[in-house]
Specification:
alpha/beta; c-terminal autoproteolytic domain of nucleoporin nup98; Rossmann fold; 2 domains; 7-stranded antiparallel sheet; 7-stranded mixed sheet; binds S-adenosyl-L-homocysteine
C-alpha cells in the first residue's frame, strides 16, 4: 500500500524543501519498522521544480493477526475465518494501517516542526497527493464530501473489480488524487491521518478511549467546522457510540471555547438570535451545566466545589459569574486537571480572577479536610465512574465529612438510553461508566443518602423529559436539613 506526496517549486523556494518538512532526506531511501510492518520512504523525483515523496508500507500479515487478537470485536475488514486472517486486502489498500504508518514516520511533519527551517511548516505549498488504491466505503462521493470542504480539489475514480471484465462492476477501491495550494504539509498529513481510516471504515486495531484525544489533536483547526464531523468521529472511533459522544461533546466545547474569545455581549446576542431562527439542539452537556448553574443560584451558594471537575468546563462557567466568589475543582486525574488549567488559562489569569479559583488533585473515595466549609458541592456525571462498592466511601466523604449545605448530583438516566439513536441496546453511554441507574434506582439511593446524613432531596430532570422514559440526565438537589427547631406556627398551636 502506498501514497505519494508531491510539490512544485522555484529556485527561491525549491520543491526539495519537502525533504526538510518530512525530515527525510531526498537522496536516501529509508526504512522504518512500524507495529504493522515495514515502512519505506523514498523520492522518485527530487528537483528544484518537482519533488515527490512516496510512503510504502509492507504489511506484515502475521503481525497484524497477532496484534489483532483479543483487541475487541471489530467491524468489516477481514472476516475471522482461519485463512482470511492472513489473506485480505490489508497489504495492498491504503487503509487505517497506512494512517498509523504516516503518523509514525512523519510525526514531526504532522506536528508542523522543522528545526532546520523553522518558518517552512507554516507556509502553504502546492501539494498533490496520490493514493492509487483507497478502500472507500461510501465511494467517490463520500471521498469528495470529506476532502473538498478542507480546500482540496478532488479526483476520485472508482477502480473496476477487474479491468478485463468491466461487467463485474466497481470494486470498493477508489483511485484518489488531491490537489491544493492553500494548505500546509502538516494540515495535509493530519487530514490523511484521520480520513484514511474513516474511508476504510474497517476493523481498527487500536481503538481505545485516548483515540478521542488523538482524533481531536489531529482534527485541530479543521474538524470542529467540518460538515461531516459526526460521520468522521463515528467512523474514526469505530462506531463506539460512547466515544463518538465524547468526541462530539468535546468538539462542541472547542467551538464554545473559541467563541469565548469574542466579546461576551456578542455571544449573548448571537445565542439569542440563533435560538430564534434555527432549531439547533443544545448539547446535553450544555443543558446540564445550565441546570447546575440554575440550581446553584437558587441555593444562594457563593463558595462552590466541583468534585470530579474533569476538564474544567463547569469551573469555567462558574468563573464567569461574579456570584461565585470561590470555586474549587477537584479531580483524581492529573491529566484532566492539566487540561482544565490550560482551558482556564490559570497561568495568565489576572490576580482577582486567580484568587477566586483553585484546582487540586484528590480522590472522592477518601475524606479530605480541604473540602470542608463550602456552600455547595457539585458531582456532575461522576458517581457512575466509581465502582458500586466504592460509592459508600464517596457518600461519606461528601455528605458525612465535607457536608456542604447543598449537594448537586447528576447522573445518566439509563431508561433514556433507548432514545439515543446510535446506542446499541444494553450499552452504557460511556466506556468508563461502572453503572447507569434508572430513575427509581437513583431515587432510592438519593433518599437513603439524604436519610443517613440529614439532607432533604429533590429531583430535577435535565434535557427533554420523555413521558415514558424520563430525561437523559437526572439531577438530585440535596439540601442540609436545618436543625429541628419549632416554627412560629407550631409554637402558637
Ligand atoms: N464533572 C465533569 C466530568 C465528568 S467525568 C463533567 O460533568 O463533565 C468524571 C470525572 O470524575 C473524571 O474527570 C474522573 O477523573 C473523575 N473521577 C472519577 N473517580 C474519581 C474519584 N474517585 N475521585 C475524584 N475524581 C474522580
Amino acid at each position: 500500500m502506498f501514497l505519494t506526496i508531491s510539490t512544485t517549486g522555484t529556485p527561491e523556494r525549491p520543491a526539495t524543501d519537502l525533504g526538510f518538512l518530512l525530515h527525510k532526506h531526498p537522496d536516501n531511501a529509508q526504512v522504518f519498522s512500524t507495529s504493522y510492518g515495514t515502512a519505506h520512504v523514498l523520492y522518485p523525483e527530487a528537483s528544484v521544480e518537482r519533488c515527490t515523496a512516496a510512503l510504502l508500507l509492507e504489511v506484515d500479515a502475521v503481525a497484524l493477526v497477532r496484534r489483532g487478537k483479543g483487541k475487541g470485536k471489530g467491524r468489516g475488514g477481514a472476516p475471522d475465518a482461519a485463512l482470511a486472517q492472513y489473506v485480505n486486502d490489508r497489504p495492498y489498500a491504503a487503509s487505517s494501517l497506512l494512517a498509523v504508518a504516516l503518523s509514525a514516520v512523519f510525526s514531526s511533519a504532522m506536528k508542523g516542526r522543522c528545526a532546520a527551517k523553522p518558518d517552512l511548516p507554516a507556509r502553504p505549498l502546492p501539494l498533490r497527493i496520490e493514493v492509487p488504491a483507497l478502500p472507500a466505503r461510501g465511494g467517490a462521493d463520500l471521498v469528495r464530501k470529506l476532502f473538498e470542504p478542507l480546500g482540496w480539489t478532488v479526483t476520485a475514480e472508482a477502480v473496476a473489480l477487474d479491468a478485463k471484465f468491466p461487467e463485474w462492476g466497481d470494486s470498493r477501491y477508489v483511485r484518489l488524487e488531491l490537489e491544493a495550494s492553500g494548505l500546509t504539509l502538516a494540515e495535509a498529513l493530519r487530514h490523511l491521518y484521520v480520513l484514511l481510516p474513516v474511508l476504510d471504515d474497517a476493523k481498527h486495531y487500536w481503538v481505545s478511549s485516548d483515540e478521542v484525544d488523538k482524533l481531536l489533536r489531529a482534527g485541530e483547526g479543521w474538524l470542529p467546522d467540518h460538515p461531516e464531523q459526526r460521520l468522521i468521529a463515528d467512523r474514526y472511533l469505530s462506531r463506539r457510540w460512547s466515544l463518538t459522544r465524547e468526541a462530539m461533546e468535546r468538539l462542541e466545547l472547542v467551538r464554545l471555547a473559541e467563541a469565548d474569545d469574542t466579546e461576551v455581549e456578542e455571544i449573548d446576542n448571537a445565542v439569542d438570535e440563533e435560538a430564534d431562527t434555527e432549531e439547533k439542539p443544545i448539547p446535553l452537556a450544555v443543558q446540564r451545566r445550565d441546570a447546575i448553574l440554575a440550581a446553584l443560584h437558587a441555593s444562594g451558594a457563593a463558595r462552590v466545589l466541583d468534585l470530579g471537575c474533569g476538564q474544567g468546563q463547569l469551573v469555567q462557567a462558574l468563573l464567569k459569574d461574579v456570584r461565585f466568589t470561590e470555586i474549587v475543582g477537584v479531580d483524581v486525574s492529573i491529566r484532566a486537571l492539566t487540561i482544565a488549567s490550560r482551558r482556564l488559562k490559570l497561568d495568565r489569569m489576572g490576580e482577582r480572577q486567580a484568587a477566586r479559583v483553585r484546582l487540586f488533585q484528590g480522590s472522592l473515595a477518601y475524606t479530605d479536610n480541604r473540602l470542608k466549609g463550602y456552600d455547595a458541592a457539585v458531582l456532575s456525571e461522576v458517581v457512575e465512574h466509581l465502582d458500586l462498592p466504592r460509592l459508600p466511601a464517596l457518600e461519606y466523604a461528601v455528605f458525612g465529612s465535607a457536608r456542604p449545605r447543598t449537594v448537586l448530583v447528576t447522573t445518566p438516566n439509563v431508561e433514556y438510553n433507548v432514545r439515543w439513536e446510535s446506542l446499541p441496546a444494553g450499552h452504557s453511554r460511556h466506556g468508563d461508566h461502572r453503572f447507569e441507574w434508572t430513575r427509581a434506582e437513583f431515587w432510592t439511593w438519593a433518599h437513603q443518602v439524604a436519610g443517613r446524613h440529614g439532607y432533604e432531596v429533590e429531583f430535577t430532570p435535565v434535557g427533554p423529559d420523555d413521558p415514558e422514559v424520563g430525561p437523559p440526565t437526572q439531577m438530585a438537589v440535596f439540601t442540609l436539613a436545618t436543625a429541628p427547631t419549632t416554627t412560629k406556627e407550631e409554637k402558637a398551636a
